[in-house]
Fold each of these.
Amino acid sequence: MPCASVVALTRLAIEPGSSPYTYDSSSEIYDFNGETLQKHGTIMHAYTIRGTRSEAKERSRQGPYFVQGVISMPVDVAAMDNWLPRILGANESTDSFALAETLQSFGALMDLGGQTHEFKDCYVGRAVFTGEAYNGNDAPRPLNVELTIMGKSEATATSFPSISLSTASNTAPLMFEDGVITLSGSARDVLKFSLVVDNMLRVRWTNSLTPTCIYPTGRRVSLACITPYTSGETGLYDQSYAGAAASLAFTNGNTSLTFSMPALQIPSRTPVATGRGEVVLQLAGTARKSGSTAELTVTNDSTV
């Protein structure tokens, strides 16, 4: 028996908008850490009382299905120009990316070696940006984003385009060490962070085996940080419920990525002493709109 396709040789291409899609040399192509995009199929069976405990295959039918999974990839400013409108909703306006009430659809094509799988009319349900300080033991890691995606349908055997990854300098990933994290008016020492944009997607089926609508039911932006609990961070404990501005800014040469929140509300959690390391403060807050200022604005400057 031959070996299966090698994961390192799999490829991912993206096309904006709604299906049908044409994958060609203008399609977006990305390197990624891993993906779990799948068709989630069902088989309907009539579970009736039939005078026997056996289930007959003749009483089965193909059931409805949907597409769901996660794409994990390093964060670079060139990729974010394409992904931020899908995460936040609004198109770029001179390096600024705002929130919108609707989301933008796209198609994803996976070349898995033995077969290609095309996922149609997809949306970003949740984006989780993470970063962690270098610890001197493991290899330093870039900032990462995990995109939870929901889609309507799948097709196989779509031709993968002849397209290569860019080698432009703005495709180099950002690092945690590129960042300045500001909480409650001051730059802080941070060991780890997780920024989540949750679009709270819901799927509807009406007289169709595939979803007829995927729509957001709300939006929640949250930020979790771990800081050393020194005299510089004691002011972060037991903050006012009204919240304070926060930002995460990452700069590499002339390029930069900044997340800005006008009001990050952080409920109090007393630090605890465990293990033999440092005492740390664990902060977990929700960013909310303040007056006319949206809960999150992102600036992404990808110009080299």
Amino acid sequence: PELFGDDVLGENQRRRFAPNEAQRDRDGNVLDAKGWRVVDRACPRCHLQLPPELLTVRPWFISIVGAGRCGKTYFLTSMLHELRKESAAFNYAFDLADSHDVCTYVDYVNRLFFPEDASELTWLEKTREDTLINEVFLDGTRVRLPKPFIFYLRPIDSGKRMPQGSRSQRRSVVLYDNPGEAFEFQFDRHVATDRHTQHLAESDAVLFVFDPLLDPNARRRLKEDSLVPQDPQLARLNFHRQEHILSAVVNRIRRHRKLIDGTRITVPLAVCVQKCDVWNRLVPHGHVIDHTSVVNLRDHGIAALDTEEINAISLLVRSLLQDICPEFVATAEANFATVRYFPVSAIGTSPQVDGDHLKVRPDDIKPYRVSHPVLWLLYRWGLIFRA
């Protein structure tokens, strides 16, 4: 992120990263200093791979945060999978970048949605730190940097009517994921070597994955409600005060952005309340929440987002969180200028106990509203219409 100061790189910066036009062979291939054909580009400081598209227009950075065992890996995998399917309705292609780090995402998607046998139980391991971190030498010091998941957003049909913000032919979206342990107190105080969460200094949005099944108040209410199916996840003895994680996120944003205490953070916060297939009966008037807020605009031949419904549903979900964990709501709304609450379910079904793990059958997976937090952001950035 420190490479990008303005939306478009200046001419001097472009010259610095773009190869000299004279260093090409007869077929037009770019050559390096020793005459070898260049197939990849790298950052001149950390030497990690740098897709060329990142050098033209500043990407959007999205930080995904949450407590350990809240289901971030399932949510991220399901969200990106659904976005790639649904983006065509908005006249976009959501493509994988030419990046080595995206292999982790491809492996997750194949295991969850495209296994050899969809009737066999599968699961995603808890995110290990080494799968999300690159260790590099930076200015002579070994530094740990988070791996970016990079995607491209490209309009499909240039003849269709599109919002003004979509005039650029392509835009990159960079997502950063962190294990929950990265937000423990004093985890990254040694900023010279540990930069796990410094992406929060450049983030254009924060997605907080909140799991009510980790909250003791919500678990008690779910167990007492006879109409709620007894999900095997309720039998697990995992508890976490997730408002502490949110406080740690707020502190890191303020620290990295050098914000004065009391100043509200202008970056939007999308609270993605996981596993709504389990807790949706606890939401007052929850029956009005259907499976999507995407509307087809027949006159334009394109889809749009019903933002009024998004806001109404947000208030319903907020009322539940205000009841079970008012500290979380207070922390979110006292520190962020814009907050929305989204009911989501990465798999849309209850897992099954298999040995020491909870597993799911791919045939039973039915993601629920997992793409809506990012669609809401795309609307705010002027890329899609509102219904």
Amino acid sequence: PRLRADLWTRRLDVVLDVPQPTPPEVMHEPMFADAFCVAASRRRRQLGRDAYLAAGHVAVSSRRQGPAMEDYLLAAQGVERRVVVRCRRYETALAIVAASDLLLTLPRQQVAHRAALPVRLFRSPVPIPPMQLRLYWHRQSDDDPAHRWIRDQVRRALAPRSRGIR
């Protein structure tokens, strides 16, 4: 409901978010999909399913409470992880992981340009579907030339992210 209202009132021109149910007046298109990986300190040499489930985890979310996006994807498979730290930025979460035994499950693109951090990346030992992001806008703005320009700028900015994703 808030997405529709924010786009209708033009409080927001576009929204980049995970797939969600939308009314017919909210237009959307897929932007990219990103595989999940697990970051751990460089001290960790391997990561299996049992170790993943037994470990403490850092969650990144803009919300103050509740499950993070990957928790929903894990729960759909009957898997629950133990989150012990919550923060809002991947940079902070990666720094915490580098200095601890905690794990961070995150989209691969979030670490692609942060190679300087002393973390080791693993494939997720629990299969997690790729994170999908979609671009949303209100139908009333669909034919507006300025609005089309904004959407094109978002597409161009995200285009490199869609290359090389498996």
